[in-house]
Design a protein that fits this description.
Low-confidence stretches: 271-279
CATH architecture of the largest domain: Orthogonal Bundle
Mean pLDDT: 80
CATH topology of the largest domain: MetI-like fold
Distance between the termini: 44 Å
Number of strands: 0
CATH superfamily of the largest domain: MetI-like
Number of helices: 14
Number of domains: 2
Order of helices and strands: HHHHHHHHHHHHHH
Structural class: mainly alpha
Helix content: over 70%
Length: 279
């Protein structure tokens, strides 16, 4: 028993040590960007391998936000990403529930057709999307970019949520119908709470994809006041003189919103939200 206890102790310790090392490796690039963005002028070029800054400054952030207009680009990306996420989740939850409960046979074919849209590289759709949006007068608009993002986000979100809605016990819904509930009540009070972790995970995926989208933002938007952060960050790389301090500060501003968004809702992903609906 003593030998087994010692073996379990060393095995657990090794697992924790292994996970700690992996966490450090995964977090190091973000920590490096954040620390480099607050270094003093000239430190990044004079001693690029130095980890801790000699002097702390927020001049790079002020220059990027106010002089280069990144505050406008961040606001554009937030509006586009949140709009895409909200509309995609609203549409995909209704579509996935309808497929599972009302069109199960046709739903399998529909979901396969939807997921096949991901077989084609986005660059192949650049010309037709540009032509259609130009005829609709939606080029160089945030609405046009939201529509393009939805065309990629909704099919995959529906495919994901179909699998989650299939885990909802049919007996619970039938019991609710016997108690006098209608379809909308069953959907909102029974099905949605059960699949809430899946909806949140899908929302995270949709938000991050919309936030990081670059190709169509570059093609469809030609005004600097409507540009997203992904395109604005690339424009810094294409400058005649690359300021690494500005690049680090801009990179931090691009990454931080996604991290904050994930931290806010991460506790709900693994939550046991099905207990309330079963009661």
């Amino acid at each position: 028993m003593i030998f087994r206890h010692k073996r379990d102790f060393w095995t657990t310790s090794f697992c924790y040590l292994y996970l700690i090392i992996l966490s450090i490796i995964a977090a190091f690039p973000l920590v490096w960007i954040l620390i480099s963005s607050v270094k003093g002028k000239g430190e990044l070029t004079s001693n690029p391998t130095s980890f801790w800054p000699k002097t702390f400054t927020l001049e790079y952030y002020k220059h990027v936000l106010y002089d280069l207009g990144f505050n406008v680009n961040i606001a554009n990306s937030i509006v586009i990403s949140l709009s895409t996420t909200a509309i995609a989740i609203a549409v995909s939850t209704l579509a996935a529930y309808g497929i599972v409960r009302f069109f199960p046979r046709i739903g399998k074919i529909m979901t396969r057709i939807l997921i096949t849209t991901y077989m084609f590289p986005p660059i192949l759709l650049a010309v037709p999307y540009t032509v259609m949006l130009a005829r609709a007068g939606l080029t160089n608009t945030r609405i046009g970019l939201v529509i393009v993002n939805l065309s990629f986000s909704v099919p995959y979100a529906v495919w994901l949520l179909v699998g989650f809605f299939q885990t909802v016990p049919l007996e619970i819904e039938e019991a609710a119908y016997i108690d006098g509930a209608n379809t909308l009540t069953v959907f909102s009070k029974i099905a949605l709470p059960i699949v809430a972790p899946g909806i949140i995970a899908t929302a995270i995926y949709t938000f991050i994809n919309a936030w990081n989208e670059f190709l169509f933002s570059l093609i469809l938007i030609n005004s600097s006041n409507k540009m997203t952060v992904a395109v604005a960050l690339k424009s810094l790389d294409g400058a005649e003189i690359l300021d690494w301090g500005d690049m680090m500060a801009a990179s931090a501003l691009v990454v931080i919103p996604s991290v904050i968004f994930f931290m806010i809702i991460q506790d709900k992903i693994a939550g046991g939200l099905s207990q309330g609906s079963i009661k």
